[in-house]
Design a protein that fits this description.
10-stranded mixed β-sheet; alpha+beta; 37% strand
């Protein structure tokens, strides 16, 4: 009887990941930021707590969408992920852990600048997690800009340092928004 129970438990442990019954989730804490990796969903959630400007960002590697909620501003930004600049999904926890161990300081060398395009009224197409994150907030679609060809009102930018890996910068264009 005991052998049957042990065999059943062992079989369950072996089959659970294959059947998707175990939610593989990793967490890395880097200073005041927490990185949570949801492996099955291919989603990374980065949360900044304990500062004057808390924020939360969801990086959906499956859809290529980033949503960032800046709590103090009561705003949410939705952007397309630049996969050339962003750390890969598999590398993100390792890089965050390296920065945690090295107690990284200063500004990251990478910066992704987004400009507000227009308000988003219906969040449903972005999925449940992003809809929940941005619900009740003014939410803007943004587009990435690069190099000197873009003009933004530098005084109207919000810059967030993500795990000392890169800065996400959200700006209003000079002519609108």
């Amino acid at each position: 009887m005991k052998c049957a129970i042990v065999a059943t438990v062992l079989l369950g442990l072996c089959l659970a990941p294959a059947l998707g019954l175990v939610n593989q989730q990793n967490t890395v804490i880097v200073g005041t930021q927490t990185l949570t990796i949801k492996r099955q969903l291919h989603v990374a959630i980065i949360t900044q707590k304990g500062t004057l400007r808390p924020w939360k960002s969801i990086w959906n590697y499956q859809t290529g969408v980033i949503a960032t909620k800046v709590t103090s501003e009561g705003v949410c930004y939705i952007s397309t992920m630049d996969r050339r600049v962003m750390p890969t999904f598999d590398a993100l926890p390792r890089l965050a852990e390296q920065n945690r161990l090295q107690q990284a300081q200063g500004r990251p060398s990478k910066e992704v600048v987004y400009v507000i395009k227009r308000p988003i009224l219906n969040l449903q197409s972005y999925g449940q997690e992003i809809s929940a994150l941005c619900s009740g907030l003014t939410t803007y679609e943004t587009y990435e800009v690069q190099g000197p060809q873009y003009t933004v009102n530098q005084g109207s930018c919000t810059k967030i340092n993500v795990l000392h890996l890169l800065d996400l910068v959200y700006c209003r264009a000079n002519n609108k928004a």
